[in-house]
Amino acid sequence: MIENSNGNALHLNNVQIVLNDKLLLSVNETVQAGEVLTLMGPSGSGKSSLLAYIAGFLDPVFVASGDINLNETNLNELPAELRKIGLLFQDAMLFPHMSVGQNLLFAVGANVRSKAERKTLVEEALEVANLSDYFNADPATLSGGQKSRIALMRVLLSSPQALLLDEPFSKLDTNLKAQIREFVFTEAKRRMLPILMVTHDEEDAKAAGGKVITL
Amino acid sequence: MLLRLAPSFALLVLLGPIFFGLWGTIEPAFGHFPALGSDTYSLEPFHKLFQRPGLGISIALSLWTGLGTTLVAVSVVAMFIAGWSNTKWFASVQQLVSPLLSVPHAAAAFGLAFLISPSGWLLRLVSPELTGITRPPNLLILHDPMALSLMAGLIIKEIPFLLLIVLSALPQSNAKRLSHIVRSLGYGRVMGFLYVVWPNIYKQIRLGVFAVIAYATSVVDVAIILGPTTPAPLAPRLVTWMSDSDLLVRFEASAGALLQLGVTATALIAWWLLEKFGAKIMKQIAVSGRRFQKDKAIRVISLITICLTSGVVILGLVILAIWSFAGYWSFPNALPSGFSLDSWTRSWSGLISPLINTVIVGISSTLIALIISLACLEREARTGNKGGSYMLGILYLPLIVPQIGFVFGLQSFFLVFDIDATFSALILVHLVFVLPYVFLSLSDPWRAWDKRYGQAALSLGHSQNSVFWNIRAPMLLRAILVAAAVGFAVSVGQYLVTILIGAGRITTITTEAVALASGGDRRIIGVYAFLQMLMPFAGFMLASLIPNILFRGKRDMRASA
After folding, report:
1. B447-484: pLDDT as tens digits
2. In the prediction, which pLDDT does B538 show?
3. Alpha-carbon span B243 to B225, nearest angstrom
4. Tens digit of pLDDT for each residue in A158-175?
């Protein structure tokens, strides 16, 4: 698999998000490689908007200011597709018209040209997710936990330089939660990604083990 | 970036023809048409127009048909939705009615005519056993002077249309919660719904209702098939003058087109007053506190009416098909004594050219409309800019301004530039009516699509274009194809536009079918009307088949997902 070798950090320099002249949140933090920064707060506190701002999807009704830097690169003016920011949502968001394997192939960078090499990368990822035989499976037939693992593998195959988690475990069954949580953090930390997580769940924050900001 | 220009281009396509068409109507209406050697303005065309016998009756018929049709159709739909939303019946009726939207007006009208005429199927089914009749009675049912058959023909087609736009307004109306609240206050189901939910729905469907008024006051094809003839309503009379070989009649016809605009405007104003009056009455009844709990009768009636109107359309299509394959069939037998392909083989050589024309014009205008709509919606998705609420008004404009008011003027324009009766002109004018339907049909599913799929794909490093082609368009393929089928159906059904712009040189199945109306050969009419209905139907079949084949084995891509 492609590893994130540089081990740099995600910097949020005086980032502020304003809605209708009201300041929703203000963050000035650095997330180091392999560390998790957890944001907790009620809905409407602007935490998901912060993720959208970092990833490049902020709705124009919000006004945001402040610099986002990833490994010395300023992201503010970059379009979403060039930011190298991986995103995980509450739902796995696997593309329903593609097989599991196609979902993963879609994520592998275009710089990997050879078909065989792309396929190998995907098969390795399926192995890590413990879903080796699922290349041709319809995503709709996977269980919630399997979908989450594929979603993470899909993000990681696109070689992101940072990872944003938007309440990624909130829809999972309690008994699955811990398992998937550990899987996500282990795999992301192994690649030395800076991780920013937004959550409602104290358990998520504890498992992440990093700094927690409550809004 | 081409996408940025898409909304302006859409506006040009919609407003350009209306603007030039109105201009091309107004000028000759006031006697000014240099191409015909008249460079001065005068009121002469109007003087001549008002000397036409029975003009007042024609105007009255147009108003009566337009308002009557709309009032009945809106009431039936309102009662039905009030009485039956959130029930099993509602869901099944919805499934029954939706496909009827694609049936062209003319085909439905022919079907109705074949059912209710004195020698029609309904009478044959019960004769002579119940009636003792062995010969068709001498009754004026079709073309009746009160225009009741005409209104019936319009109502059975407008009910599915109104029901469909009501259904798309329902989710934004908080209908379930509000009707639960009002019923817990002790109000009957129907009246409670009409008090609190209907005003919300009506606000959203108002433009659609206006479109029904405009259509029913100025309809031509259905009026030729079912409407009164001595005199006819205004619009079909105008078409006769517009196709008069004496070019000087064009002046009068243009004045008539302006008159038609006035008639439709009058109907719209009358409806607007009716809205105010109705709202006031409803408020007065509401504050009286009367509960209207005994509404079973009205619920049953509304259900029966809806089923009956749909049943008539379906039965009409069946009888069209039977006639097209009928051998010898004497009155009052319920079925022909034999079936044959004679009518089909006899018509075949004449069918091919109109069939090809229909397909060329339908597919071209639909494709262009689809590209424009997709470009506008994709731009909206990328910029978050919805383009304001006036956009909806502009989309509805070609449906609210009566066609006859500007298409004839457009023809005058094309005549001057010598591009009348060309395929490009015809496709361009079809586009004016196809585009609104394609856009309206596509925009709801497009906007309801979960944006996070696109965000996920972008954050994987894919460009906006890659997301469109690989994710969004395939995931919405079903909606895109349905929109295309709607567009094609609209194009196939266009009568007036085709006859005016095609100038008799480009004929379609629809113009040929309506032209057969006066001849009265039921077998041949059956062939044409059956085909006319079959073409949109084939479009919808493809729209549901293609995704099923492409996405076989993908559970979340099924129709209901």
Report:
1. 999 999 999 999 999 999 999 999 999 999 999 999 99
2. 94
3. 18
4. 999 999 999 989 888 888
Does some domain include residue A143? no
- For residues B212 and B504, is the Cβ–Cβ distance under 8 A? no
Closest in A60, A138, A158 to B461, CB measured:
A158
Going by their DSSP bridges, the two strands A10-19 and A22-31 should be labelled as: antiparallel
Q: For residue B428, give its domain range.
A: 1-30+342-561
The residue of chain B nearest to residue A166, with distances taken between CA atoms, is: B452
> What pLDDT is stored for residue A71 in this prediction?
87
> Residue length, chain B?
561
d(CA B47, CA B82): 49
Clarify whether residues B495 and B484 are in a common domain.
Answer: yes
On whether both B321 and B351 belong to a single domain, the answer is no
Chain B touched by A142 (CB under 8 Å):
no
**B557 touching A, CB under 8 A?**
yes
The domain that holds B73 is classified in CATH as 1.10.3720.10
Residue B283 domain-assigned (yes or no): no
**Apex B329 CA angle, B327 and B335, nearest 5:** 95
Of B323, B399, B362, give the one whose Cα is nearest residue B493. Answer: B362
Gap between the Cα atoms of B302 and B313, Å rounded? 17
**Whether residue B311 sits in one domain with residue B450:** no
One domain, residues B119 and B13: no
d(CA B345, CA B62): 39
CB pairs under 8 A between A and B: 78
Nearest CA in chain A to B472: A95
Query: For an interface test with B, which of A106, A122, A152, A156 has the most B Cβ atoms less than 10 Å from its Cβ?
Result: A106
Interface of A with B in 21-60 (CB under 8 A): 55-57, 59-60
B463 touches chain A (CB under 8 A): yes
- Measure the CA–CA gap between A44 and A51, rounded to whole angstroms: 13
Residues of B in contact with A56 (CB under 8 A): 458
Q: How many CB atoms lie within 10 A of CB B114?
A: 25
